[in-house]
Amino acid sequence: MRGKRPAVRGYLKIGLPTSEQLAIKFSAEDAFGLACRRSGITVLDVDAPDERLLADAMSEVGPSPFVVRSASGNFQAWYRNAGEGRSVRPDPRRPIDILGDGFVVAPPSRGAKGFYEIISGGLDDLANLPKMRSQRAPRGISPAKDMQPLVEVGRRNDSLWRHCMGKARHCSNINALMVEAMSFNRAEFCEPLPDDEVLRVVASSWAKELSGANWFGRGGRVIFDAEEVDDLLRREPDAFVLLTILRRHHWSREFVVANAMAEAMPKGGWRRHRLAAARQRLLDLGMIEEVRPASRHLGPARFRFKGGQK
């Protein structure tokens, strides 16, 4: 592959024997992909680095054990192909594609911004992927708002709490938030919650907002101990910058710190030896650990935060 463009023609018709030959011929390449329909795969492609959007989409079509994060930080969930076509933005309001046909980049390919990586599941799961759950609306069309089922009884508290947390920062006081909550309670639930339960949820959400602990709708966070800021930033600024970027994108999952990442570092990029030195310093300090060394067959070395932290 060159970027996201296959390096050979007729790639949607290539079978297993030819694929094996191409893997040998292009062994030096660092990216590859597959033909969805021919491989029996349908990909739920979430074109945004938003785990909540991924979770919402998977709640509609069903869970998948195999989830990939792209080089851009977006997400893919893989399913067994059940005849789905290639539907780009079936709901124009959401950056989600259903790729049951055509071509898709596969992990551990390297893109312009980094590597595609498996963040849930493993290769053994590919033989037993579930099918996407069928939708009530015609294929490629999302149900209208007034046709969607109301929230079930067992999910009411969590749904109301999430709604209140998202609305709290736009409310001037707790009374305004209560109005939002009561309206949501009446409109969205099969059986509305009692008023006193709504009040408890509102009070909890407003307390989070006043304490500065409400991060709903404000993006992700990168967390550091005060000791790390006081010590590591002062003594090892390059290691601190690298650690910040790794925590920003990976949190409690294995990751790659390949030398090519140097080009994407701040201020126009770093030289490779600078990135390597920062990576080694984090290893020496025990902040990251190597899970698997680099190899020709498996690709770049993989790391994780020491002890699965953060």
Question: Could you walk me through the main structural features you see in this protein, from its secondary elements to its overall organization?
Answer:
This protein has nine helices and 13 strands. It is of the alpha+beta class. The strands form four sheets. A six-stranded antiparallel sheet has the order 5-6-2-4-3-10.
Write the topology of this structure.
Elements: H1 16-25, E1 32-35, H2 36-39, E2 41-46, H3 51-61, E3 67-69, E4 75-80, E5 86-87, E6 96-99, E7 103-106, E8 110-111, E9 114-115, E10 117-120, H4 156-168, H5 174-188, H6 195-211, H7 226-235, H8 237-249, E11 255-256, H9 272-284, E12 288-292, E13 302-305
Antiparallel strand pairs: 1-7, 2-4, 2-6, 3-4, 3-10, 5-6, 8-9, 11-13, 12-13
Helix pairs in contact: 4-5, 4-6, 5-6, 7-8, 8-9
